[in-house]
Amino acid sequence: MTESTPESGGAGDDDRLPPARSAFGAQTWKEIAYLLVNLPMVILGFVYVVGWLFLGTGLSVTVVGLPVLAIGLSGARLLGRWERGRARWLLRLRIDEPSPLRHRGVRGGFFLWLWTGLKDPVGWRTVLYSFIRLPWGIATFTVAFTALFVAWPVLPFIARVLTNGDRAMVRGLLSASDELERRIAELESDRGTVVDTAAADLRRIERDLHDGAQARLVALAMDLGLAKEKLPEDPDTAARMVDEAHGEVKLALQELRDLARGIHPAILTDRGLGPALSTLATRCTTPVTTTVHLPHRPAPAIEGIAYYTTSELLQNISKHAHATHATIDVWQAAGRLLIRVVDDGHGGARLDGGSGLAGLAARLDAVDGLFTLDSPVGGPTTVTAELPWRDRTPDGTPPHRTREARLSRKGS
Fold first, then answer.
1. Partner of 149 at 20 to 30 A CA spacing, among 17, 110, 339, 360?
2. Full-prediction pTM beyond 0.85?
3. Which residues contact 236 (CB under 8 A, 6 or more apart)?
4. What is the per-residue pLDDT across 17-76, written as a single tens digit (0 to 9) for each?
């Protein structure tokens, strides 16, 4: 007897179906078993989908309707996983698992979790698969069961033809062809994070200008106005007020310089990440040792993100860690910019501890970065930030790292 080669879920020569067999080999019996199991499987899937949709839409007028729909789509994903496993085992169909749904409820909130779940393309494809499969599953079960007793000689051919239809459905609706859709959804979500971060930064700058330099300049203008009025009748007092105003001008200029440095420090633009981080370390209340090993400078945007990430980490060390020493290490590896900040403080830091670390993680995630925290109680605390290395010229830009690689790094 002749056995067929395993089918492939991808394009190319491996995707062509082998010719029908006439012998009752092991694979033929697996295909017959697949067709006979179709009936209970399609009934189970159809009942689940109909019951879930009926419950979710019926409750959609309440606050629990949409969450029920989102949770139901997660269940549909499990049905799809089971069907892919059944096709691999009985039909020898090689098909990849779709990427896991990227829920970000902790950092993005309940509504982001809800929206991500409701627009899950894998879940909705499985729902469509369950509807289409009901009449097909009943028909294939009936034909296979009848041929098992009536048309025995041609049963292998019938099983082959019918399971080819099943293979096509599994490939078309349950395959891992949603990566482009998933990437678009990720970019939409990340764009929202970037926009929110930019809006928060603008509000911070506006607040600093209004409460700092602007208020000081208004007071300065009033003092100079009073000095002008006193100049003819009391020159000494006017001179003293002008001297005080001169001091206020110096303070206002310093505040504006600090604000400009907070927007984008000149040393970062002129000399790069190493000198900028060294200068940043000198302003930290905790002694900091900085080591930077970079072959050349990355893109300005990456430098800026790395600088402000390190700045916020040092601020956290100054405010919360009670450390006596900290280290900053920056290097390039495998097309990525890595930053490791370690302090010998009391530890116990958490992403949800209100220290701003969750915001840092969200910002890095928005640019395909990673953020890991290791902070046992008693210390030390180690924070590692990873950013995509993008050269200052387009010719040196490395290829985009796939989402699977990011997920594998997160799981390691």
1. 17
2. no
3. none
4. 444 444 578 888 999 999 999 999 999 999 999 999 888 888 877 878 888 998 999 899
Taking only the tens place, the pLDDT of each residue in 305-315 is 888 889 889 98
- Give just the sign of the alpha carbon dihedral 14, 400, 341, 392: positive
Tokens representing 77? 């994903």
For residue 201, the enclosing domain spans 190-263
Six token digits for residue 255:
């505040």
The CA distance from 342 to 328, in Å, is 7
The residue from 177, 205, 229 where one domain ends is 177
Q: Are residues 213 and 230 in the same domain?
A: yes
Identity at 350, one-letter amino acid code: R
Distance CA 170, CA 6 (A): 15
* C-alpha to C-alpha distances, 221 to 44, 214, 241, 253, 370, nearest whole angstrom: 78, 11, 11, 14, 48
Out of 263, 280, 312, a domain closes at: 263
Query: CB neighbours (10 Å) of residue 52?
Result: 19
d(CA 216, CA 251): 8
Overall number of domains in the chain: 3
Asked if 97 contacts 182 with a C-beta cutoff of 8 angstroms, the reply is: no
Report the alpha-carbon angle 186-187-190, nearest 5: 85
* Helix intervals (H) in 23-120: 26-58, 65-91, 105-108, 110-118
